[in-house]
Amino acid sequence: MKAMGVFALMLIFGLFSADLPFSSARTIFNVLDYGAKADGKTDDSNAFSAAWKAACSAATQNPTVMVPSSKDFLVYPLTFHGPCKSSNISFKVIGTINAPSSPSVWRGRNARRWLIFHGVTGLLITGNGTFNGHGSEWWDLSCADHPNMIGCATVLPMALNIISCKQSTISDIYTIDSAVFHVVVNQSSDILVKNMHITAPESSPNTDGIHVEHSQNVLVNNSVIATGDDCVSIGELSSNITVSYITCGPGHGVSIGSLGKYGNSVKVEDIHVKKVNFKGTTNGVRIKTWQIGLGYVRKISFEHITLESVKNPIYIDQNYCDINGTRGNCEPKSTGVHISEVTYDDIVGTSSSKRAINLNCSQSVACTGIYLSNIKIESDKSGQQVISECTNAHGTNSGVVQPKSCLQS
Fold this sequence. Notes:
By secondary structure, the protein is mainly beta. It has helices at about 1-15, 45-55, 135-140; strands at about 30, 40-45, 65, 70-75, 80, 90-95, 95-100, 115-120, 125, 130, 160-165, 165-175, 185, 190-200, 210-215, 215-225, 230-235, 240-250, 255-260, 265-280, 285-290, 295-310, 310-320, 320-325, 325, 340-350, 355-360, 365-380, 385-390, 395-400.
């Protein structure tokens, strides 16, 4: 009887513990079970933090933090720390996660980043849900758009930050109206970002869609991005980055840079951009480096690109500078980032400006190894012609190149 009693107690405890929110036997960690109100007004940060800590410490395979559908969650700046006990962990967003909309409530908090996943291996963020950055009030304060405003904001929160993560994926997520960058991959490796839908008004400042820096082995794939800045931007100390099957526009195109702003040594290589459709963007494929920078950008390819009324379809600016808060009118410098081994192949479509190819390279550190092949860019205005302009750009071309190549041998 005594043995039966112990067994019965164990059975009863097992049945009840299966429903406890902190049970190590669970695989689903629903933020509602940890106290989230999901009314869009109450701060649910503690519930999200508790659900993550429970999932991250769980001794189960592929624990999942669940953000359920048809719910609105208000979450203040928060970091989800790794490493986790499981080799894989999921953060499944089916509902909507909202940032605080008023900049005033960010005082005393990390105003540079909203949500951070740090030091996690095997992370999957997915679910067809939405991250809403509620950036409109920030844009009204941004020094980028209001440089003469007293008290304008120089630091604005980037929405979704993947920092020091490995072997991780972000897929099937909507991000809207971030104050600045929507998705940031920083100091990470072996990262896949796919099937993303990223939107912000065309007039919103610095709202890059996906920004990659200090990272290696990153694939950005099969996404639709329409923002007020670069659809995809690639920063310093990045290598083996592929951007493919992207619909971009409105926005500023796909950019490598800007690089070398602080006179530092730049190391960017093996960047491949292909199968991108640009619609009404200010730039197509662009490399931009500051005059005072050092180092190199090399082994770059832009291939199978289509253009629809793009202002600067092919653009290198090796003379990026800032004079009294204004870009342009740069005086020659003896420094520069060396840009080399850059391929442009199979780029077709229309330009909204006369200058379709602009390779503005440094007088001190020339662009070398530029290759143009199968380029056919026409004006989007009937009867008008487009031109190419090169400054100290050296390389070769083959096949059809329209407008005519201006490369020096």
